[in-house]
Specification:
With about 375 residues, the protein is mostly helical. It is about 75% helix and about 0% strand. The chain has a two-stranded antiparallel sheet. It comes from Pygocentrus nattereri.
Length: about 375
């Protein structure tokens, strides 16, 4: 029998004959306030209102933006262009991620998973594949731009015979995304008790810690390292070129790094704090309460990054903007004809007003 058991009534074989008495004395000196269970009901109440609203906004905006990108790329898709191939798969990744948000919004609003165990794993698969796929395709685009700009290499898919190389790279990225997502998908279970839930159930503490480290390394440290290195080489190369468009390209690259850092760093910091919590640090109720609120805020900020991908990577390009306007004119010809008519009327009105004022000034 272990001497550390407070409920032991029989003496233990210990050299210290006061061991049991000291343990009993310590038991009566315990403060009940130190063992009050953490109450996080206000965090759940906050999430019931906050998360469904913001998840719905991210879903709608992201669906419109990425859906438009996908439609334009499918219509004007060029297999020989690496950027088009990456943009297409980036939009697919974001759409996979966005598909999961309505389910998480309902889960947050009701605090109950009603879609079953199979849908729990399926939604988790969409979420994880979209999450890692989006990051990895951004990195592939960055590396491609680095090779083209710094080393003056032809884009990997510029030549017709290199299309197979691009398909292999895209397949590798999707395979890598699936590989790093698989443990979370497998361990995620939907339990249909009185209060259904959908969350990872890791077999031991080590798996949970590894999942946190994976998110930090693959979700922030690796992307920032690769982007920082590549753009630190690309920007000086562009600055040395005699091109009118170099300043715009440099600004775009700085925007890419800053936006990624601002949107993903807070979320990864909170993930790292969860990692420390499971190591035995920051175990107080206040810390756990604050971490719960911080996770909701930072997670939503990080999720909204998929709404910005179409704007940053697609709409800022002159060629893509032209294709978007062309597509919208084909889809909504009446709207664009009315807008054009209105523009002409406003222009004529301004011209007539200017002419009248000029005439009045002449006669004064």
């Amino acid at each position: 029998m272990n001497c550390q058991k407070l409920w032991a009534l029989t003496p233990c074989r210990s050299k210290d004959k006061w061991a049991v008495r000291n343990l009993v004395d310590d038991y009566y000196k315990l403060n009940p306030d130190d063992f009050t269970p953490c109450i996080t009901s206000d965090v759940k109440d906050f999430s019931r209102v906050f998360l469904p609203t913001l998840y719905s906004m991210v879903f709608i905006v992201g669906l419109i933006g990425n859906g438009l990108v996908l439609c334009v790329l499918v219509k004007y898709y060029r297999k020989s262009n690496m950027m088009d191939m990456c943009l297409l798969n980036l939009a697919l990744s974001d759409l996979l991620f966005l598909i999961s948000l309505p389910f998480w919004a309902h889960y947050a609003a009701t605090d109950m998973w009603i879609f079953g165990s199979s849908m729990c794993q399926a939604v988790t698969a969409f979420y994880m594949l979209g999450f890692y796929g989006s990051i990895f395709f951004m990195l592939l685009m960055t590396v491609d731009r680095y090779l083209v700009t710094v080393h003056a290499l032809t884009s990997l898919l510029f030549k017709r015979q290199s299309v197979s190389v691009g398909i292999a790279l895209v397949s590798f990225v999707w395979g890598l995304s699936l590989g790093v997502s698989l443990p979370t998908i497998i361990f995620t279970q939907g339990r249909n008790e009185s209060t259904g839930s959908c969350m990872p159930k890791y077999p031991n503490k080590t798996w949970r810690l590894v999942s946190y480290m994976e998110l930090n390394i693959l979700g922030l440290i690796l992307p920032l390292t690769v982007m920082g290195f590549c753009y630190s080489q690309i920007i000086p190369t562009l600055a040395a070129m005699k091109s009118k468009k170099k300043h715009r390209a440099i600004k775009l690259m700085l925007v890419l790094i800053i936006v990624f850092f601002l949107f993903w760093t807070p979320y990864n910091v909170v993930i790292f704090m969860h990692f420390l919590h499971h190591l035995g640090y920051m175990e107080s109720c206040k810390w756990w309460h604050d971490l719960g609120l911080a996770m909701q805020w930072t997670e939503t900020i990080a999720f909204s990054h998929c709404c910005l991908n179409p704007i940053i990577y697609a709409f800022m390009g002159q060629r893509f903007r032209t294709l978007v306007i062309k597509t919208l004119k084909e889809w909504f010809p009446i709207c664009f004809s009315r807008c054009r008519t209105l523009h002409i009327q406003l222009t004529d009105k301004r011209s007539s007003t200017y002419s009248t004022r000029s005439t009045e000034m002449t006669f004064v």
